[in-house]
Write a structure and sequence with these properties.
The chain has one domain. About 5% of the residues have low confidence. It is built from 3 helices and 9 strands. The longest helix is centred in the first third of the chain and has 23 residues. The chain has about 160 residues and is of the alpha+beta class. Helix 1 crosses helix 3.
């Protein structure tokens, strides 16, 4: 029973890995981040780099920012931002990241509970949640146009 469930998710996982490779500029023949393990799955082989956080002048921190436009900004050298569609998905993502569960994260991406959104994408702030230091936004361009997402305030930059 469990094997049938996993087989049903394989096309979604393959699509998520393909999108992840595109976003990272990775190549499946000479991988730098995601390695294919034939007949077994995938393995993350990249080395995490801790970049300095964005400068405070660029961080979007206004608690009265409801209705304002902002841009998503990626951490470090990444060209995309992973955003959760709701609080439940955000909590699940935190658990998976704490456990270094890359397969679980890939499944969240495949199920569209985590969205890969290009850095610089314009969003509108719908709600600011100060205790959690995050906000709910509406994505205003690209593949995920019109979808709502939960984003940490540190991943938002005010429009200049």
């Amino acid at each position: 029973m469990a094997r049938r469930h996993i087989c049903a998710l394989r096309p979604h996982l393959n699509t998520a890995i393909k999108k992840l490779r595109q976003a990272l500029g990775d190549n499946k023949e000479k991988p730098r981040f995601v390695e294919t393990l034939p007949k077994r799955g995938y393995r993350f082989i990249g080395k995490p780099e801790h970049a300095a956080p964005p400068s405070p002048a660029k961080i979007f921190v206004s608690s009265s920012g409801i209705g304002q436009l902002a841009r998503l900004c990626a951490d470090g050298k990444l060209s995309f931002v992973l955003v959760s569609i709701d609080e439940e998905a955000a909590a699940e993502r935190e658990k998976l990241e704490a456990a270094s569960d890359d397969v679980g994260l890939s499944l969240l991406i495949a199920s569209q509970k985590l969205l890969m959104v290009p850095s610089g994408t314009q969003v509108r702030v719908l709600e600011v949640r100060q205790p959690q230091s995050c906000c709910q936004v509406r994505i205003l361009e690209g593949e995920h146009y019109g979808k709502a997402a939960v984003v940490p305030l540190t991943q938002l930059a005010e429009l200049s």
